[in-house]
């Protein structure tokens, strides 16, 4: 963001606002459903930056939990296979099958 001519940082626009052109056309930015149904309603359903940031953090935390769970599950499976008396052979066969599948993908 660049500063305005008076040196002040620019004002953050409202969450949802109207832009009016010289010809009288109005554009809703970004376009909340409440104002699309009633252009002059005061209430706006658009999330604030703080709400969007909070939602992004929750999504990130969920993705991290999911990844840790999948990583734990995968590590547990690998440990069980390696602990098996034929574990090395099982892993070797799986690796060979993976190479064959890569060379001849089925669609």
Keywords for this structure?
single chain; 107 residues; mainly alpha; 3 helices; elongated
Please explain how this structure is put together.
- The protein has 107 residues and is mainly alpha-helical.
- Helix content is 53%, strand content 7%.
- It has helices at residues 33-37, 49-83, 87-103; strands at 17-20, 26-29.
- The protein has a two-stranded antiparallel sheet.
- Strand 1 (17-20) and strand 2 form a beta hairpin.
- Helix 2 (49-83) packs across helix 3.
- The longest helix has 35 residues, at 49-83.
- The radius of gyration is 28 Å and the shape is elongated.
What order do the helices and strands come in, and which of them pair?
Layout: E1 17-20, E2 26-29, H1 33-37, H2 49-83, H3 87-103
Antiparallel strand pairs: 1-2
Helix content: 40-55%
**Overall pLDDT, averaged?**
80
Following the backbone from N to C, one meets helices and strands in this order, namely EEHHH
Order of strands across the widest beta sheet?
1-2
Low-confidence stretches: none
| Structural class category | mainly alpha
Number of helices: 3
What does the largest sheet look like?
A: 2 strands, antiparallel
Report the radius of gyration as a whole number of Å. Answer: 28 Å
Shape type: elongated
Distance linking N and C termini? 49 Å
Task: List how many beta strands DSSP finds.
Answer: 2
Strand content: 5-15%
């Amino acid at each position: 963001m660049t500063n305005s001519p008076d040196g002040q940082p620019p004002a953050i626009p409202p969450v949802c606002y109207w832009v009016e052109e010289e010809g009288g056309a109005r554009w809703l930015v970004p376009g909340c459903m409440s104002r699309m149904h009633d252009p002059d309603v005061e209430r706006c359903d658009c999330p604030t930056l703080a709400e969007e940031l909070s939602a992004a953090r929750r999504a990130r935390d969920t993705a991290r939990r999911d990844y840790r769970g999948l990583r734990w599950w995968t590590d547990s499976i690998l440990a069980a296979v390696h602990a098996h008396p034929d574990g090395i052979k099982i892993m070797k066969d799986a690796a060979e099958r993976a190479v064959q599948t890569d060379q001849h993908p089925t669609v």
